[in-house]
Design a protein that fits this description.
Length: about 260
């Protein structure tokens, strides 16, 4: 990065810090980018591909019923990538931020559990959890951390039918309490941070617009601009694992 660009980023970081330190209620939306520096592959872009399948081809109920084993193999590959992963400085900065802020809600599209591991508590998992298996017949929900799994697809211990990952695929409805909780957090916040998401998957993609329509300050942190960037108040372009600790650390010396 050249000197002018670096100075510009530093000024924006100082401005973001100012907004954050003055906020008593912060809402955060995260996507796959925040876990990239923990070695967890993102969905889109060059490293997001798995055996030349796009997420839109695998993350659907239709794909699952056509070939449950193939879809499970994708999840097994991802469980393998996540099992040794540790939170990175971006995750830890958000955990510190929750400790320092009177009201704080972390809405995540990620299913990897790294925010919990870093110490965040008030988390809304919009798209479910990688370590839970749900029976396709009786709905029984089981925690399962086996990598590899004993059998693919796994079988329900209660009724013997096949299990599916307890996640939200395309064309599936996100539970109403998840949407309500997210909207409430956005309505009540002073500042919203949107971190490491391409902003193309709904309804998460519209959460920033909802915040803007409610007059909130929205700060985006991403390696690249997204379709919604022009709507937001501040765009911090770079790695979330590098930018978030700067927001938090200097935050402390401010108070
Ligand atoms: C970094 C970085 C670093 C990298 N630092 N940054 C309205 C209009 C059009 C379509 C729809 C609509 N409403 C609903 C739809 C349909 C559909 C949809 O959105 N389609 C679009 C593709 C157009 N949505 C749905 O079907 C949703 N359901 C729904 O709306 O129900 C109601 C309904 C039903 C039926 C009909 C109509 C309405 C459900 C969506 C569920 C998405 N599920 C997945 C899989 C979850 C489980 C799993 O993980 O396997 O969720 S798909 C996948 O995409 C996953 C992710 O959570 C999600 C978002 O991806 P994310 O996190 O943004 O990752 P990437 O890879 O895309 O981006 C990474 C970003 O990080 C990039 O920007 C990088 O630059 C950045 N980055 N390193 C900072 N170090
Ligand atoms: Zn069952």
């Amino acid at each position: 990065m050249n000197e002018i660009a670096t100075n510009e980023l530093e000024e924006k970081i100082a401005e973001a810090r100012h907004k954050i330190v003055g906020a008593s209620n912060i809402a955060v939306l995260t996507g796959a980018g925040i876990s990239a520096e923990s070695g967890v592959p993102t969905f889109r872009g060059q490293e997001g591909l798995w055996q030349n399948f796009r997420p839109e081809e695998l993350a659907t109920p239709e794909a699952f019923w056509k070939d449950p084993k193939l879809v499970w193999e994708w999840y097994e590959w991802r469980r393998n990538a996540v099992k040794e992963a540790k939170p990175n400085p971006g995750h830890y900065a958000l955990a510190e931020l929750e400790n320092e802020t009177p009201q704080f809600t972390l809405i995540t599209q990620n299913i990897d559990g790294l925010h919990q591991m870093a110490g965040n508590r008030n988390i809304i998992e919009m798209h479910g959890n990688l370590w839970q298996v749900r029976c396709t017949k009786c709905g029984d929900l089981e925690e399962n951390h086996d990598v590899p799994m004993a059998e693919l697809p796994p079988r329900c211990p209660k009724c013997g039918e096949i299990g599916r990952p307890n996640v939200v695929w395309f064309n599936e409805i996100i539970p109403m309490e998840v949407i309500d909780g997210s909207l409430k957090a956005i309505e009540e916040c002073d500042v919203m941070l949107i971190i490491g998401t391409s902003g193309i998957v709904e309804p998460a993609a519209s959460m920033g617009l909802v915040a803007k329509q409610a007059g909130k300050c929205v700060i985006e942190i991403n390696l690249e601009p997204t379709p919604s960037s022009p709507l937001y108040d501040l765009i911090l372009q770079g790695k979330s694992g590098e930018i978030l600790p700067l927001l938090y650390t200097t935050n402390r010396t401010y108070s």
